Amino acid sequence: MRELQEKIRQEGIVLPNNVLKVDSFINHQMDPKLMKKIGEEFAKRFENEGITKILTIESSGIAPAIMTALEFDVPVVFARKRKPLTASDHLYCSSVYSYTKQETNEITVSKDYLLQSDTVLIIDDFLANGQAALGLIDLARQAGAKVAGVGIVIEKSFQEGADLITAKGFRLESLARIESLENGEVSFKTEECVSI
């Protein structure tokens, strides 16, 4: 998605340890027009999959998930990283390790909101080592729901996440695929330049 790539080039900041900071437009402050286009693009790519729910993880995945859900006219379910005080044992749970935060979280979704009859599209802001996406896939599988695919805003193609997801047989659609962050420069995989 060319507009997303341009925004990353203009405003993204490369930090040590292969971290790309995009908090000026995706995961702290958000660009609503860009988010709308992101939702439209995911909806276009998964339009014939019979999506009934969008599944994401708090908190940075929520905005692109909501915009995608608006296009499909379906609910968004987000996995919580901390068990709420109001929660019962009526939960699906999975462990997820965060590369950026260097911590493991137990993510949960209420069994009331993820059903066997659902066809789920998983949406998240980043794919690096794939742990968040695999945790969400695990939650959907516990519910017996069908996973139509995984939609990622920014994929770090030089890390193992994409290979892990596709090796398990899941469809993966990433809107910006980063080949390298070497020397503080963002390089994209050129075959994924799709203009919308």
TrEMBL record:
InterPro entries: PRTase-like (IPR029057), PRTase_dom (IPR000836), Pur/Pyrimidine_PRTase (IPR050118), Xanthine_PRibTrfase (IPR010079). GO terms for biological process: purine ribonucleoside salvage; xanthine metabolic process; XMP salvage. 5-phospho-alpha-D-ribose 1-diphosphate binds at residues 128-132. Its EC number is 2.4.2.22. GO terms for molecular function: xanthine phosphoribosyltransferase activity. Residues 32-167 form the Phosphoribosyltransferase domain. It is an enzyme of class 2 (transferase). SUPFAM superfamilies: PRTase-like (SSF53271). This is Xanthine phosphoribosyltransferase. The gene is xpt.
